[in-house]
Structure formats: C-alpha cells, structure tokens
Amino acid sequence: MYNAHKVRMNRLFRESGKCLDVAIDHGVFNEHSFLDGLRDIEGVVASLVAAGPDAIQMNYGQCDVLQNLPGRNKPALVMRTDAGNPYNKQAHSHLFNVLACEDDPVLPAVRMDAACVVANLLLLPGEPELHRQTIQNIGRLRPLCEKYGMPLMIEPLVMRPNEERGGYQVNGDKNLIVPLVRQARELGADIIKADPTDHAEDYHEVIQAARCPVLVRGGGKESIEKVFQTAHAFLQQGAHGLVYGRNIYQHADPARIVKAFMGMIHEDHSAQQAWEAYNKS
C-alpha cells in the first residue's frame, strides 16, 4: 500500500537513517542581520545544490528557486510554515509566531513537492502566550500532515531573555530543553530539530525524550574546526543529523563544509577526519 509519509521520510533520510538539512529560511523572520549571505538567493541555492546536502530548508515564497531546477538529483525541500518576530534584536511589546497560510498551511508544501514541513515550539521567559500560540499552530498542522502524508518537523526553541545580549539567544539548559522536546513529541512530531545542550554529554536525554529522529541545530557562527568538534560530539550522543545555516551559506565555499558534514553524518567520520576533508577539498 502506498504510504506518502514514508516516501517523504525516505527522501530526507538516507540508508544511514541520518540527514543534513541546510536552513536558509531566515528571511521570513524580518531580521536584517539574518540576510547576510542570503541576499542572492538564486546563487545561494545553486551553490548548495552543487554541494549536495540531503535537504534545504526554505519558505514558500523562495522555494521555487530550488524546485524549478531541472533534474532529479537535488536536495529534498523542507518547508517552513510559520513566521514571527521573536528573533529580532530589539524587543517587541508583543511577540507572535503565526502560520503563514491560515487556510491550509500544509497544502503549499504539497504543491511544491516538499518532503517535510517545519514549525516552531517556542519557550521564552515571561511569554506564555507565545508558547500557547505555537502549540496552537502545531495543533492546526498535525491533522493536515496526517491528511496529506506530510512529515512534521517541530523545532522546540528555548530562548534567553532578549535583554541579556540583545536579540534571540539559545538557552542550552537541558532541564528546559528536554521537557520541551518531550512536549514536541507528545504533540505529534515526526522529526525534531532541537537546540544543543550546554554539555554535549547530556544530549542522550534529548534523544530519549524525542523517540523520533532528532536533528541538532547549528546555532551561531563559529570557527570551522570548532563547528566540526561540536557537531561530532552531538552526533555521538545519538543525534540523527544536523541542521546548519550560517556556518554553511555564509562560507566562501559551502561545498567544503557540506562535504565534511556529510562524511560525519553518513560515514561516521570523526571531527579530525572532517577537518582533514575540509582542508583537502
């Protein structure tokens, strides 16, 4: 019997059961600093397709750049379904995170042949309404994903107060991340895109709470060698892959980073082997 959900999951995850998803969906959050490296979206997509990750994460209004490319050998599309203002450097009096298409937020992904949709599950200090709003979004998405056979990726994000450093910052406290990941799974996540914990050795608790594939978010930009060390540490804890953005698309040659990541994810390369592959390419 045809199972659209399984077919789409197979497009994301190779025989290894793992995935590298490159996120370039930042423009929908209306933050100027997020656009560095993304202004020429056609050029960015072309360089990423040539690099060959498993998936590229985009929004509806830009995903035609990927899906209009000819040929079968291109990354799967992961489509974001929501937009909001929690990421802005200047704090807002009212925070929101809403579905970009209220009528049927999954149908655009079906029409654009996406392999997966993604939505936030946000936890900010003193912002219970924002948390409730993202739960409502997921509640709207879940039955539609079931209807269309579309995998649902939930992105549970624990944030620090805006005033601490100015703008969105990850809170790596495992005591906040683990229950939020568990909540994401309880709400029906097929895949979870989770923050790294402060200590990589704690990440097996995130994996246990998820009980579904977990992709680790890359976070802010760091030195390449440090990026490989960090990524490897979380993969060793049982993560099923990575979601990286700025550390890939802001690099002068994204293919070098992608090649090294793909070796770590699909061939179990060490951080040192990834570093050597990066320097040889």
Report the biggest beta sheet as strand number plus sense, adding barrel if it closes: 8 strands, parallel, barrel
Helix/sheet category? alpha/beta
* Structural domains: how many: 1
Quantity of strands, as a count:
10
Report the principal-axis shape. globular
What is the helix/strand order? HEHEHEEEHEHEHEHEHEHHH
Low-confidence stretches: none
> Ends: how far apart?
44 Å
Averaged pLDDT: 92
Q: CATH homologous superfamily - what is it?
A: Aldolase class I
The helical percent reads 25-40%
β-sheet strand percentage = 15-25%
User: In CATH terms, what is the architecture?
Assistant: Alpha-Beta Barrel
**Rg, please?**
17 Å
CATH class: Alpha Beta
Strand order of the largest sheet: 1-2-3-6-7-8-9-10
CATH fold descriptor: TIM Barrel
| Total count of helical runs of at least 4 residues | 11
Could you characterize what this model shows?
40% of the residues lie in helices and 17% in strands. With 281 residues, it is α/β, with parallel strands linked by helices. The protein has one domain: Aldolase class I (TIM Barrel, Alpha-Beta Barrel). An eight-stranded parallel barrel has the order 1-2-3-6-7-8-9-10, surrounded by six helices. A two-stranded antiparallel ribbon has the order 4-5. Helix 6 (174-186) links the parallel strand 7 and strand 8. Helix 8 (224-235) packs parallel to helix 10 and helix 8 runs antiparallel to helix 11 (271-280). The protein is globular.
